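Re: export button greyed out
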Amino acid sequence: MQETPKESKLAKVSPKTRKVFEFIESSKSPLGAYDLLNDQNLRAIGFKAPTQIYRALKQLLDLRLIHKVESLNAFVACCKEHEKGPSILAICDNCGQVQDIPAEDLAAQVKREVGKKFPGLKELNIELKGVCEDCTSEDSEVQAATVS
Amino acid sequence: MQETPKESKLAKVSPKTRKVFEFIESSKSPLGAYDLLNDQNLRAIGFKAPTQIYRALKQLLDLRLIHKVESLNAFVACCKEHEKGPSILAICDNCGQVQDIPAEDLAAQVKREVGKKFPGLKELNIELKGVCEDCTSEDSEVQAATVS
DNA sequence: TTCGGGATGTTATACTATTACGGCTAAGTA
DNA sequence: TACTTAGCCGTAATAGTATAACATCCCGAA
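Workaround output, generated via the alternate export path:
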């Protein structure tokens, strides 16, 4: 059985950090540090203080196994396709789910666009808010809107 | 003298809210709510509690006179050119300054890119980190890097 | 064995943001 | 005029997010 990138990355972390990843990965919505600490049973497996959670989150961020959703102060698992590349986080205001959409091309355009004004580009964070496909089709009240 | 959009917007807010805008506009770096409250002399002009600052900030955000930099929990004034449109916030890790770069074209491409997966796009937030032009040329250690 | 460094545990604190409630004032109206 | 209501502002309390500082343990290198 071939090892996936994700598994090889997880091999490097402690069991507790792995557990944090599993909770985030299995959640349908982004989880905050305190969601993990209080609502999930991370206390049951030995996490007692925020610091511990943040340390685990930092490792997972460094390994690019998770993203921080800055506008929600919460964390989501990376989708499989873009583990190396930039992505867009699309946050549904209705159901709360976040899609992690690979965005290689877009990153290239951003680089061109900011070009001279900002030559030392290192990190790119794109977050969208709106209504996802599922919620749009389920709820006829909610219709496509334009970028503000 | 013709009224600019900025001035007509500011005409709608209270003197204290206007003062908050002036501090943000004149600052070289993004300011947090508590920077405004404590470090600047907003206490001197009658602000006593965070709530008051946040109320003023909300008005300014609603009028699109300022942006929130989500990854810093801080606020910057909008540049003049894009008061209606989407923009990119480019944050320099070296000097702390944030450039607000108009990005109409990019917003259009984002819409195309996420298209079917996220039809109800309403808000778009793009933040970059890296090194700005000034810091790149001043400091030869710091060279252009690639998007991670 | 001893030293040093990295991971982990623990406590405290800093930083960010909102809720709740009460008073004041301005505009509408019987 | 008196009443009402809605919005703005003041104040206090609290909720939510994140880090600092320091102790401890464990393991590998000298």
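Residues 5-138 of chain A form a domain with the Arc Repressor Mutant, subunit A fold (CATH 1.10.10.10). The button fix ships in the next patch.
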